[in-house]
Amino acid sequence: MREGWRWYGEFDKISLPEIAQTGATEIVTALHGVPYGDIWQTDAIQSVNARIRNAGFNWNVVESLPIHERIKRGDGDLSGLFANYRQSMANLAAEGIKVICYNFMPLVDWTRTDLRSPVKRGGTCLRFSIEKIAALDVYMIEREGAEADFTPETLRDAKRWFDASTTAERDALIHAVMCGLPGAYDRYDAANLKQALAGYEGIGRSEIRDNYKRFLDEVIPAAEELGLRFGVHPDDPPRDIFGLPRIVSNADDIDWVLNAHKSPANGLTFCAGSLGANPSNDLPSIAQRFADKIHFIHLRNVTKEPNGSFEEAAHLDGDTDMPALVSVLLKEEKRRQTSGRDDHQMVFRPDHGHELLDDESKQTHPGYPLVGRMKGLAEIRGLIDGLKHNMA
Questions:
Q1: 32 catalytically annotated
Q2: Residue 252's domain is classified under what CATH number?
Q3: Closest to 95 (Cα-Cα) out of 35, 161, 30
Q4: Rounded distance, CA 13 to CA 368, Å?
Q5: What's this model's pTM, rounded to 2 decimal places?
């Protein structure tokens, strides 16, 4: 397994020389300043690639090549957007990119309610609070029918939080929700988020699936020709949110995606944290079931609560049996190597991390501190070495 590190390029407070000291060898990045739907131009890709390689890293995985909201909604004539997407793919492949990570989450990306929730013994973590999401949905956005998506207990707690909250706390909540969007995006306040949600009125799970299948049919044949592999990132959190259907949340969803357009190029980004937030998901079992279609890996852990809330745990703590999961992935690598596959070494990265020591002073992208992720990478590196020793 090759050690990766997500880097936000010109927008990142962490430099490539600093990343080099973590021991990672693979940079995972994107053209974060390009608006969704525009072509990623060759000169821009070459410029980023040159910086990465001159710093001693490889760039084999793009995270992410975003999908325009109109494609997710199936809105109007999409031929131009699909053509732009395929041209971006061709430009990336020409620069040696092998894997494209992407997601099909409508409107919002990974969603948290707290960016700096305190953890035991110091430091902070990302947190998803179901009562705060309910407060935002029911009392701030005032989405019609939102109450039906929550239990009476959650609605009670949401009302209590909302009534006691200050304007600053409500602003911090909507800011936290918006921070999951990784690139050139529209940032919403509560009123504008409600307006944006109206664009999905009447679009349910079956419609999102139809639009997703159309996307796969448009891009996967091009990926095959270009030698690219696509890995869909699971929904985060793995549940409907703001009335928007999430359709990559469990093993059945993944099975649907991989069969919607059967191809070696149509695969999975295995995110342990996203899948791990669903209490019904058995992560080692899911990894075993879809092992040959895993093209990229995020390793992180979460601690779940009975009401649906969760928070980011240390990488080897939390509810996921990380040794069991990594063991499955290492065995898949060995199987690929034995069968002669040229992609037998998968890139993984330590996803998210606690803010520790002087991380807070750097003001990095939420969830992407230097020290916290380096700690996670070191722990996973040790786990991998120990498992390899036992396997040998």
A1: no
A2: 3.20.20.150
A3: 30
A4: 10
A5: 0.95
pLDDT in tens, 234-261: 999 999 999 999 999 999 999 999 999 9
Chain-centre distance for alpha carbon 384: 22
Catalytic pick from 114, 137, 235, 351? 351
In the residue annotation, 85 being an active-site residue is answered as no
Given the residues 101, 139, 271, 315, select the one marked as catalytic.
271
Partner residues linked to 271 by β-bridges: 298
Q: What is the DSSP letter of 126?
A: E
| Whether residue 184 has pLDDT greater than 70 | no
Q: Across 229-381, where does the E strand assignment appear? A: 229-232, 266-271, 294-299, 301-304, 310-313, 347-350
Q: Which of 68, 261, 298, 315 is catalytic?
A: 298
**Does the active-site annotation cover 68?**
no
**Whether residue 50 is found in the same domain as residue 187:** no
Task: Please count the structural domains in the chain.
Answer: 2
> Which letter does DSSP use for residue 139 in this model?
I
Query: What is the distance between the alpha carbons of residues 55 and 74, in angstroms, rounded to a whole number?
Result: 41
User: Which residue among the candidates 32, 261, 295, 352 is catalytic per the annotation?
Assistant: 352
| Pairing between β-strand 114-118 and β-strand 124-128 as defined by DSSP bridges | antiparallel
Instruction: Give the DSSP H/E element, type plus range, for residue 383.
Output: helix 370-391
**Which tens digits make up the pLDDT trace of 284-310?**
999 999 999 999 999 999 999 999 999
354 catalytic per annotation:
no
**Closest by Cα among 373, 276, 386 to 320:** 276
CA distance 83 to 61: 21
Cβ atoms 174, 136 nearer than 8 A = yes
Q: Which domain holds residue 182?
A: 114-197
